[in-house]
Amino acid sequence: MIYLKGIKKSFNQLPVLKGINLKIEKGEVVTILGPSGSGKTTLLRCLNFLEKPNAGLVQIGNIIVDAEKATKKEMLAIRKQSAMVFQHYNLFAHKTVVENVMEGLIVAKKVKKKDARQQSERVLDKVGLSDKLDHYPSQLSGGQQQRVGIARALALNPEVILFDEPTSALDPELVGDVLSVIKSIAQEGITMVVVTHEMSFAREVSNRVLFMDEGVIVEEGTPLEIFHAAKEERTRRFLQRISGETYFLPLKEQVN
Amino acid sequence: MGKAFDIMLIFEFIPTLIHYLGVTLQILAVSIILGFVLGIAAAIPRLYKIPLLNQLVILYVSFIRGTPILIQLFLVFYGLPALLMLLFSIDITRMEAIYFVIITYAISNGAGFSEIFRAAIRAVDYGQTEAAFSVGMTSRQNFFRIVLPQAVRIAFPNMANSVIGSLKDTSLAFTIGVMDMMGRGDTLIAATAHALEVYLSLSIIYYIVVLLFEKIFSKLEKYFNRYQKADVTAVA
Ligand SMILES: Nc1ncnc2c1ncn2[C@@H]1O[C@H](COP(=O)(O)OP(=O)(O)O)[C@@H](O)[C@H]1O
Ligand SMILES: [Mg+2]
Fold this sequence. Notes:
The complex is a heterodimer of chains A (256) and B (236).
Chain A: E1 2-11, E2 14-24, E3 29-33, H1 40-47, E4 55-60, E5 63-66, H2 72-79, E6 82-85, H3 97-107, H4 113-126, H5 142-155, E7 160-164, H6 172-186, E8 191-195, H7 199-205, E9 208-213, E10 216-221, H8 223-229, H9 233-255
Parallel strand pairs in A: 3-8, 3-9, 6-7, 7-8
Antiparallel strand pairs in A: 1-2, 1-4, 4-5, 9-10
Chain B: H1 8-18, H2 21-47, H3 53-66, H4 69-88, H5 97-123, H6 126-134, H7 139-169, H8 181-192, H9 195-224
The complex binds adenosine-5'-diphosphate and magnesium ion (MG).
Magnesium ion binds next to helix 1 of chain A.
C-alpha cells in the first residue's frame, strides 16, 4: 500500500507539487495523465526520494517517512520499497543485460551472486530477452533496453514499480512490445504507478486514472469515469487534445 | 666540440644506458601511483565544491599548469628542505635526490590527474546514478560500482597521455644529480665527448619505451571500451 499526504515540492521557489494526497492499494495499477510540466515526473520521483519533497508524508509498505525530517537512512529504506523504470532506460552502460538486473539484487538486497543470476535470468525470460543475457546495453534496440529496465525493476520484487513515460523515447514500431510486457506484469498483480501518454494503456490496463495539472491532482476515477464522464473541464480538454493527436496518427501514416 | 661522429658507438652506449632504465621507470611508477592518490584527493573538493579546499585545489592545479616542470623540480629540491627546516627543524638536505624527483612528479601528476578525474566523473551519465539509487544503492555503492568504472574508461586515454608525458619528463631528473638514463648519459658525454651518439642512443631507448607503452595502452583501452558502441573520447 502507498499513502501520500500533503506532498509539496518547489524548484527555486516555484511550486511544482502543491500538496498531493493519494492512496494506492496493493495490486492497483494507477496511470497518471496530464500535460507536460504538470508535475507527473516530480510526483513519481518524490515517491522514491530521487527528489526530496519539501513537506509531506510518504508511506510505501510498512515504511513511513516524514519528508521534512527525512534522514539518508530513511530515504534508502523507502527507496528499497520501490523500483523505477525510466523514460531513457538509464541502464548501467558498463554492465551486461544480466548484470544490470543482478546489480540491485546483489548490492541492495544482498542476494548471493549465483541466486541473483538465476532470478535475473528468470525475469529476463519473462520480458523475452533470454537470448541477450551477455549483451551490453549499447548493443540493444531501445525497446530491448527498456525491457531490461523493466526486468531490473521487476527482479527486485518491490512493493511498487514506478514507470515514467516508459515508451515515449521509443520508435513507434517498438512501443507495442514494451507495452505488452508492462501489461503482462500488470496482470500479475504487481502494484504499478505509470505516467504515460498511451491512452490505450490507461484505458485497458489501469484500475484508476489520475489527471494532474499544475501540481495538483485535478480528478481521479476509473478509466471509464475519466474517459467518458470526466467532471472537470480541464480533464476533458486535455483528453480531447490527446485523442485528437492519436486520431491523426494513423491518417498520417496512411498518407506516407 | 665533440669528436667525429661514430655510429658504432651507439651500439656500445645503448646497453650501458639501458642499465639505468630501471631508475627511470621507478621514478615514473612511484610518481604515477602517488599522483593517482593525490589526484583523487584533489578531485573530491572540486566535485563536491568543498569551500576553501576547492579554491586551494584550483590554485594548485593552475600553478602546476602554469610553471615549467624543471622549475617545480628546483623549487622542491631547494624549497622543501628549507621549508621543513623552518617549520619543523627537520633536516632533509641529505635525502637522496631521487626522492625530490619523485615528490615533484607526484605533485605534478596529481594536478593533471585531478582534472582528468573530475572531468571523467562528471561525464558519466547522471541517469545511471539515479537508476542506482532507484534500486536501493547507497551513494558510496553507486560511486564505486557504477560511476568509477565508467569514469576510468573515460579518463583512460588522457591518463595514458599523461603517463607518457611524465616518462619523458623524468629525463630532467639528472639536473639535480639523479643517476637515471639521462644522468648516465651525461657522464658518458663527459668521459667520451661523443654527445651526439649519446643523445641518439637515449632517444632510441625513450622512443622504444614510449612505443611499447602506447601498444599496451591501446590494448587496455580496447578492453575498457568493450561495452561501448562507438568510441567516445574524453571531455577533458
Ligand atoms: N530538477 C529540477 N529543477 C528545476 N525545475 C524542475 C526540475 N524538475 C522539474 N522541474 C520543473 O517542474 C515542473 C514539473 O516538471 P515535471 O515533474 O517533469 O513535469 P511532467 O513530468 O508532468 O512533464 C516543470 O516546470 C519543470 O520545469
Ligand atoms: Mg515527465
